[in-house]
């Protein structure tokens, strides 16, 4: 790569790679694979700043100034039947306003000088690449990547697209252990996106009562209207929960609902988190069947996914599950540091990898003012935790009947996440129960046991956090809506079918204060 000469008029993936590196340095160029005037100006500016001959041609010295080392095209990895120690599969659904973040993370993956028995595969779809989708095997140290263009259209939010990528990655880079990272910080959906999904689930487009395109202020339709007009789709794209939805199939379920009021409630009560969780289980179950065993590690470089409902849903299909309770910053995971640690010890097991991801993630935000959380849990050891959680749910139901004000107090001081604050940190719930003198002694004892089980080293492999808001958090959240309206889809989750947590939520929603 470092020897490649690029100039005005050049096209292709190497130009796109150059543009991504320039963007990472702060230059305002599009990563479109065409070396035009803006790219020429950025290269010229870089050369002048670095004291290089300023000719606007990206040659070896310019590549080195961008941090790329001399590599030969012959170093490109080829398919092999000899298994690697790890295949890290990164699914980058960046066809939104985080396309820049996707480009930066690709460069972080490439920055490791040698993978040393680890292979890295990726699905990439980025807005700044015209929405084109690619399967890639990433090469270390600046060597050319293996790139396979996918025929359009490709829906990066379709669970089948995730499954197709994993199947391709396993064929391309067989390994002894597999990690799948779902990368989606949710840059947002446009009204046209929802109109396309609506067309798929209803068989026709929405009534266009406003111009197509992104509309921030649209005429308000009647909430009793059955099928949504385009103005309703415009409003839905402005709701935070819609913007963070992972799967288009989840959005399709919301758009199937019969009235505007139903759709409005579903976009603001945790429904999409439940639907995404169910779709994730379906994907992981299919991967389990393909591999003949659970995947070693599932990482979610995304927001709000370190959640008990998620972990319990996929417990049979994944070993270690890594994610964040809180919204993640756009920078996400520090891939260079994580891959460097894997290269230094490629035979590490999944627990060790989970521990490292948490440790490196937290370290990457030290010295900043970002509020961050990250947690790795061992899904194979979830049963002990769930036994105590079930007892907690039963105890909370009794507490609601005896004195609801205790639950009122506890839920009001616990740390909450999600846009509507419908996810609550379990550790702060338990701490509040233990601290409140009115708590039933048996319930307080159960809460104390859960606190002990949540200590890192067992079910919780590792946990880290930064920021005043999350100071007492334990890394794992559960659904506990503040408004006491429960998503109609929550009952479809495994946790609702195997514990009394949903019954507790309903009891609490319907209760009247007995004693204050």
TrEMBL record:
SUPFAM superfamilies: PGBD-like (SSF47090). Pfam families: Peptidase_C11, PG_binding_1. InterPro entries: Peptidase_C11, Peptidoglycan-bd-like, PGBD-like_sf, PGBDSf. It comes from the Bacteria. Residues 11-66 form the Peptidoglycan binding-like domain. This is Clostripain-related cysteine peptidase. The lineage of its organism: Bacteria, Bacillati, Actinomycetota, Actinomycetes, Streptosporangiales.
